[in-house]
Amino acid sequence: MDQLLPDLVARRVRSAPGAAAVAEGTRTLSYAELSDRADRLAARLRALGAGPGAFVAVRMRRRFGLVTALLAVWRAGAAYVPIDPSHPAERVRAVLDDAGAAVLVTEDPPDGVPHGAAVLLPVGP
Q: How far is the C-alpha of 15 from the C-alpha of 53, rounded, in Å?
């Protein structure tokens, strides 16, 4: 029985909502908290046009927010395009243009983000 990651997370939320889903140093994020944050971000992404066939660029460091963002993109029905936060603005622009991503989820917007791209701050601690 094949299940997608969002389905597996939802099942874990039902069975053990208080269990640790993500750990960062001494902080943890429970499955219920992760699910709530991802749902809120997914709704914002859908409002900006994310959905089946759409690409959402994700430019974040490996922290709580990244896990939340990826789950939100999948819950919105879109695909994510990873962008390394260390890449220069020219590279970010090129990736956004090549992917056709209209939405960028980032912790800190790079210089030169193309006009019309929506910059969202991740739902995180």
A: 31
CB neighbours of 124 closer than 8 A, spacing ≥ 6?
37, 63, 64, 65, 68
> What pTM was estimated for this model as a whole?
0.84
Q: What is the Cα–Cα distance from 73 to 56, expressed in whole angstroms?
A: 7
**Rounded CA gap, 25 and 16, in Å?**
22
Task: Give the ranges where 1-125 is alpha helix by DSSP (H).
Answer: 5-15, 31-47, 64-76, 89-99
Q: Do 48 and 78 form a contact (C-beta atoms < 8 A)?
A: no
Tokens for 57, please give them. Answer: 């660029």
- Give per-residue pLDDT as tens, 83-114: 998 888 888 888 888 888 878 888 776 666 66
Tokens describing residue 14: 């039902």
Length of the chain: 125
Q: Is 66 exposed, middle or buried (0-12, 13-18, 19+ CB in 10 A)?
A: buried
The yes-or-no verdict on residue 115 having pLDDT over 60 is no
